[in-house]
Amino acid sequence: MRTTVRTILAALAVLSILMAATAATAGDMARALTEESALTSILKRGSLRVGMDTFVPWAMKDKNGEFIGFEIDVARRLAEDLGVGVEFVPTAWDGIIPALLSGKFDMLIGGMSIRADRAAKVNFSIPYYDTGMAIVAHREVAPSYTKLEDFNHSGVVIVARKGTTAARAAARHMPNATLKLFNKEPQAVQELLNGRAHAFVSMAPLPAQESIKHADKLYLPFSGTFTTEPNGIALRKGDVDTLNFVDSWIRVVRAEGWIQERQHYWFETMDWQDRIQ
Which of 45, 104, 118, 192 is most buried, by the most CB atoms less than 10 A from its CB? Predict the structure, then answer.
């Protein structure tokens, strides 16, 4: 009997040691994750490093060379609420996710649409606004087009920015057209203005704003967007603390109406035009 009791106690001791070791390991892992989170680094550093690329009116430079735009406002407000400064890290769009994963910046605030293939590489916050793809056409090259199907023919040339959801949307919705891709939106718009393309596809409201700026050459075949896309802030995978903070922050600023007010200013007015010219 005593041998049996000793055996049971020994087994319980081993089990306790294993449980303690497991708890210690879990605690160490949690501490390590917290210590390594972007949120911890941002607070220690005293600045939020934001990855972005220039997209009018999401991010662009004003007359003084300072970044302005919808996403710039979002990043500045997020940094302000964290009590830190903000540092913008301009990065080419087609390499912006690898740059985030390499630690070049803390998070990506750049009008990035939430997609499953991107979510396989990064964690997305909850959406902080929705947008979609729109199209603007050349008056002489594509006269009197009124619907998306009018552009889905061989011989039609569509221009868009490389690596964007605009390029994917154009390829998906107009597979019979020829798609020409450019590194920057202004290059694609210039191709359209030069009459070497029928239409330009991009995230709204840019096509509508280009049709206003170049009303003698461009027009909107139809109003609104032909896709709906939620946009989120992208973070490195495994960073639960930072993701939780960003999600909570989005809920608060949306409840305040602040995001909606900034959307109205940048997407539904041209009141900011004088700041860049």
Answer: 192
